[in-house]
Design goal:
The chain has helices at about 25-55, 80-90, 150-155, and strands spanning about 65-70, 100-105, 105-110, 115-120, 135-140, 145-150. By secondary structure, it is α+β, with helices and mostly antiparallel strands. The protein has a domain at about 20-105 and about 140-155: 2-Layer Sandwich (hypothetical protein PF0899 fold). A three-stranded mixed beta sheet has the order 2-1-6. A three-stranded antiparallel beta sheet has the order 4-3-5, with no helix packed on it. Strand 1, helix 2 (about 80-90) and strand 2 (about 100-105) form a beta-alpha-beta unit. The chain binds zinc ion (ZN). Zinc ion binds near residues 117, 129 and 132. Zinc ion (ZN) binds near residues 117 and 127.
């Protein structure tokens, strides 16, 4: 595990603090925002750690992009993850690289249709064709690094 820089979690630095803001209001904001961001930040650190190990094994000094597949049921807010990624990537071979997220919809297996069906959203787990409920999730929980991109010059070095 990379050291977890708690000091960077200063939520106040994410937003300009207003001089006349009332202290109790700030406390409310922190309570609402910290758990969400910490979740994505810890995921971002895990992703960066895995990608860094992969890059080091392949002798890639500088990664330019990381491709990630993210299921809509993974419980990750895309925007928060993108924000957290930039922080987590600092001082690693991934610094300044792009996180490219491919969002995956939910696919269930419908026993009635005997087929996999893509759901239009995550509000209902019913087959969009026949209406049968199904708990057999085929896709939607992914949080996978698919590939790393790097400059050719780096590969030759
Ligand atoms: Zn069906």
């Amino acid at each position: 595990m990379l050291p977890f820089p708690v000091a960077r979690l200063t939520i106040f630095s994410l937003k300009p603090r207003r001089a006349n803001a009332r202290p109790e209001k700030q406390v409310v904001g922190v309570q609402e925002e910290v758990p969400t961001l910490m979740h994505e930040l810890s995921i971002a650190y895990s992703l960066v750690r895995v990608a860094t190990e992969a890059a080091q094994e392949a002798h890639i000094p500088q990664v330019s992009a990381v491709h990630l597949r993210l299921g809509v049921l993974a419980g990750v807010v895309k925007e928060s993850l993108l924000f957290s990624y930039d922080i987590a990537a600092e001082n690693t071979p991934l610094a300044g690289s792009q996180l490219i997220i491919e969002e995956l919809p939910v696919i269930i297996y419908c026993p009635t249709c005997a087929a996999e069906q893509t759901l239009p959203g995550i509000q209902s787990f019913r087959c969009p064709v026949c209406g049968q409920p199904s708990a057999q999730i085929v896709q939607g929980k992914e949080l996978q690094i698919i590939s790393l991109e790097y400059a050719d010059a780096a590969a030759l070095a």
